[in-house]
Design goal:
Elements lengths: L13 H12 L6 E5 L5 H11 L3 E4 L25 E4 L3 E3 L6 H5 E3 L1 H7 L4 E3 L1 H4 L4 E5 L6 H13 L1 E6 L2 E6 L3 E6 L8 H6 L2 E5 L5 H16 L1 H7 L1 H17 L7 H13 L6 H16 L7 H11 L16 H12 L28 E2 L2 E2 L11 E3 L2 H4 L7 E5 L4 E7 L8 H11 L12 E9 L2 E7 L7 H21 L2 E8 L2 E9 L2 H9 L9 H13 L8 E6 L13 H12 L4 E5 L9 H9 L2 E4 L7 E3 L3 H5 L1
Parallel strand pairs: 1-10, 1-11, 4-7, 7-10, 14-24, 18-19, 18-21, 21-22, 22-23
Antiparallel strand pairs: 2-3, 5-6, 8-9, 12-13, 15-17, 16-17, 19-20
Helix pairs in contact: 1-2, 1-12, 8-9, 10-12, 11-12, 11-14, 12-13, 13-14, 17-18, 19-20, 20-21
C-alpha cells in the first residue's frame, strides 16, 4: 500500500479541508465535489481525509461492511452467528472510470456457481464502500451508465441487483468524493446536485505558500514514513476532533430565526433544489460541532452556504457559478443582529432604487475598431440542431453502440462474437445446466460497448469593417451565442475563428469549454478589411486536424465581401470561392449577415460553392428556427 500524504500537512486550501471535515462529521451531507486545475491537491486531500477518520467496527472478511448490530442475512460472514469483530479503517474505495456495471453493482459469484452449482452473489464496489467513501477521480468523465447507477444508490441508500436470476438488495450508504477539471467537461446536473458540497480550488498564488507546498511534498517523497511521523500528533488531534464532533452533532441545533435565514438564502440566490436547504442546515450544524458548540450561528450558515449553494443555483449557459459575497455578508449581519420588528422604525423616506435603470454603455473604441455586445436572446432566432434530425452521423453527444470502442455495458448472445464477453458466457452456461457445466457455442456472448460521440462546431465569424454597423454585429454575436448555448447543453466541442484586417485568427482551438468561446466572442473587436480567403484556409486546416469521430459542422457568418488576397496577390473573391470548393462536401451552414439596401449576394454564392445550407440572418430575427441538415451531415 502506497503511503498517504497526511491531511494535516496540506498547506492552505482551507475551504477544501473545511468541506471534507463537514462530511467526516456528518456523512449524510452527501459528499464533496472538488473542482480545480491539475496539481491543486484535490486527490491528496480526499485520500488524506480517509486516514484521519475514526475507525469503524466490522467483521473480518465481510464484503458488505455490515453494521455490527444489524448483520445482513445474505452475508456469509455475518449471518452465521459468532464472528470476530475488530476496529478497522473507514473504507475508501476508488471507482475506476472504465468499471463495468457488474463490478460496481455486484454479480454472480462464478467460483461458487462452478463448485457447488448454486447461484450466489458477489458484492461489488458499492458494497465495499458502504459506511465509507467512494472516490471518483475525474468524475465528469464517468460513463452515463455508471452515473445512473450512482444516482439510484445515492437516492435510496440501497443497492438493488436483479439480473441472471439474482434478486439482491443491500445497504449502500456511501459518501461520494469526486474530483474534476472543468476543462474536460461539465457534470450532469442530476449527479451534481447529489454532491452535498462543492469546492473550487486552485494552486496558491502567494510565492511563500507555493514554496512551502513544494518543500513539504519533497520531504514526503524523500521519507514518507518519517514525514508522516512528524505530523502524527496533528493527525491524532484531528481524528479526536472529528470523533468529538460526531458525538456532539445530535445535540447541535439551529434557532427558528436561523432556520428562516437558511430558506431566505436559498430563495435570494435562486436555488431550485430543496436539497440545498436540508444540506445547508446539516453543514452548519457540523461546523458548530467541529468548533465544540451546540448552537449553530449565522456565520456557520454563511460558511456552509459557500459550499452548498453555488452549484445549485439556477444558471443560464455561460453564467459563472458562485455567490455574491457582499450580499451574503450583508444578509449574515442582518441575521446575526436582526432589527426589532417595529413599524415606527421603518424608514419610508428613501427614494426607490434607480428607477431609470442602467444606461447602455458606449462601445469601447480602439481607433477604427469597436466592441459590440451580443443582441438580447429575445431579439434573435434560437438556432438549434435537433438530435433526432441529425442521427448518429452528427454525434450530438449521443450514445452510440459499438463492438470495438467505448465502455462495456452489457452482453448479447452471439455464436460468433467479435469480443467475447467471458462473464456473460460463463453465467449463461452455469444457469443453463448447473449440474453439468460446459460451455457451448450457444452460450457465447458478445460485448456491447457504448461510446460518447461529441460533435465539433467550427464557427467562422466575420469581424471586418463591413460588419461595423451596431445592429449587424450585435445580431451576429447574438446568433453565435444561440449556437453556443445549444453546444453548451449538448456538451459539444466548439472552435472559433474570427477574420478582420489582414488575416484570420483561431481564437479558440477545438475544445468543450464553450464558456471560453463565449468570452472570446464578447471581447471580439470589429473593424478593418475582410480576409475571407484567409479564414477559409484556416478553417480547412483546423478541420483537417480532426481525426475520427462524427463529421464537424462548419458555420460561417459573413456578408461574403472578400477584399484581402492570400499572400497579397490574386483575386480575393475568386480565392475564397476556390477554397470553398475544396471544403465542399463537409457539413456546412452559411448565415448571410448582409443588410444593405443593394445586396451583392456574395454569401449565397459562397454557400453554393460549399454545398452548404444558406440562411439570411435578418430573416431569423424574432422567430424560433430549427435547422435540419441531416442530408449535409450524412454525406
Amino acid at each position: 500500500m502506497s503511503p498517504i500524504y497526511p491531511f494535516a500537512a496540506i498547506v492552505g486550501q482551507e475551504q477544501l479541508k473545511q468541506a471534507l471535515l463537514i462530511c467526516a462529521v456528518d456523512p449524510t451531507v452527501g459528499g464533496v465535489l472538488v473542482r480545480g486545475d491539475k496539481g491543486s491537491a484535490k486527490s491528496t486531500a480526499a485520500r488524506g481525509l480517509a486516514a484521519v477518520l475514526p475507525a469503524i467496527r466490522r467483521a473480518a472478511g465481510c464484503g458488505y461492511n455490515c453494521e455490527p448490530d444489524h448483520p445482513l442475512p445474505l452475508c456469509p460472514v455475518c449471518s452465521g452467528g459468532a464472528r470476530a469483530l475488530h476496529d478497522g479503517p473507514v473504507p475508501f474505495i476508488n471507482l475506476p472510470l472504465g468499471a463495468t456495471e457488474d463490478r460496481v453493482l455486484g454479480s454472480l459469484d462464478f467460483e461458487k456457481a462452478l463448485q457447488g452449482g448454486k447461484q450466489a452473489f458477489k458484492p461489488g464496489l458499492l458494497a465495499a464502500a458502504h459506511r465509507g467513501m467512494l472516490y471518483i477521480d475525474e468524475v465528469n468523465l464517468l460513463a452515463d451508465h455508471l452515473v445512473d447507477v450512482l444516482l439510484d444508490a445515492a437516492a435510496m441508500g440501497v443497492n438493488t441487483v436483479e439480473r441472471e436470476g439474482l434478486a439482491v438488495s443491500h445497504p449502500a450508504r456511501v459518501t461520494l468524493l469526486g474530483t474534476m477539471n472543468q476543462e474536460e467537461g461539465d457534470l450532469r446536473p442530476q449527479l451534481l446536485d447529489r454532491f452535498g458540497l462543492m469546492v473550487d480550488v486552485a494552486a496558491p498564488r502567494e510565492p511563500a505558500l507555493r514554496a512551502e507546498v513544494v518543500r513539504r511534498r519533497l520531504a514526503f517523497e524523500a521519507d514518507p514514513a518519517g514525514f508522516a511521523a512528524q505530523w502524527q500528533t496533528d493527525s491524532e488531534a484531528l481524528r479526536e476532533n472529528i470523533a468529538a464532533a460526531r458525538a456532539l452533532l445530535p445535540q447541535t441545533r439551529l434557532s427558528d430565526s436561523l432556520f428562516h435565514f437558511v430558506s431566505e438564502l436559498c430563495c435570494e440566490f435562486d436555488v431550485s433544489s430543496l436539497r440545498a436547504d436540508i444540506v445547508l442546515n446539516k453543514a452548519a450544524r457540523a461546523l458548530a460541532a467541529l468548533d465544540g458548540r451546540i448552537d449553530a450561528s449565522a456565520e456557520d450558515i454563511r460558511d456552509a452556504a459557500r459550499l452548498v449553494l453555488p452549484h445549485r443555483r439556477r444558471r443560464k449557459p455561460f453564467e459563472q457559478s458562485g455567490l455574491d459575497q457582499d450580499k451574503l455578508e450583508q444578509m449574515t449581519r442582518q441575521a446575526s443582529t436582526p432589527p426589532p420588528p417595529s413599524p415606527q422604525e421603518q424608514d419610508h423616506s428613501q427614494p426607490p432604487p434607480d428607477a431609470d435603470g442602467e444606461q447602455e454603455p458606449n462601445p469601447a473604441s480602439h481607433g477604427s475598431e469597436q466592441i459590440f455586445a451580443a443582441a438580447p436572446a429575445g431579439d434573435i432566432a434560437r438556432i438549434r440542431v435537433q438530435a433526432q434530425s441529425l442521427g448518429d452521423a452528427a454525434g450530438r453527444r449521443s450514445d452510440g453502440a459499438s463492438r470495438q470502442r467505448g465502455h462495456y455495458v452489457r452482453a448479447e448472445a452471439n455464436p460468433q462474437p467479435a469480443q467475447l464477453a467471458v462473464d456473460a458466457t460463463l453465467r449463461h452456461a452455469i444457469l443453463r445446466d448447473p449440474d453439468h457445466f460446459a460451455v457451448t457455442r450457444a452460450d457465447l456472448h458478445d460485448k456491447v460497448r457504448v461510446a460518447k460521440q461529441g460533435n465539433l462546431i467550427l464557427l467562422v465569424v466575420d469581424a471586418s469593417g463591413s460588419m461595423a454597423a451596431r445592429q449587424r454585429m450585435e445580431q451576429v454575436k447574438g446568433t453565435v451565442m444561440s449556437l453556443l448555448e445549444d453546444a453548451y447543453r449538448r456538451r459539444d466541442q466548439v472552435a472559433l475563428i474570427a477574420f478582420r484586417g489582414q488575416q484570420a485568427e483561431l481564437l479558440l482551438p477545438p475544445c468543450n469549454r464553450v464558456e471560453q468561446a463565449e468570452l472570446a466572442l464578447r471581447e471580439l473587436p470589429t473593424g478593418g478589411r475582410t480576409p475571407l480567403a484567409h479564414a477559409l484556409a484556416l478553417a480547412a486546416d483546423t478541420l483537417s486536424r480532426q481525426l475520427g469521430g462524427p463529421a464537424p459542422l462548419l458555420v460561417i457568418l459573413s456578408d461574403g465581401r472578400a477584399n484581402v488576397a492570400l499572400d497579397g496577390d490574386g483575386d480575393p473573391w475568386r480565392q475564397a470561392l476556390d477554397l470553398a470548393g475544396q471544403l465542399a462536401g463537409a457539413p456546412a451552414l452559411v448565415l448571410d449577415t448582409e443588410q444593405d439596401f443593394v445586396r451583392l449576394g456574395r454569401a449565397r454564392e459562397l454557400a453554393e460553392a460549399l454545398g452548404a445550407e444558406y440562411l439570411a440572418c435578418d430573416a431569423l430575427t424574432g422567430e424560433q428556427l430549427t435547422l435540419t441538415i441531416q442530408q449535409r451531415l450524412g454525406r
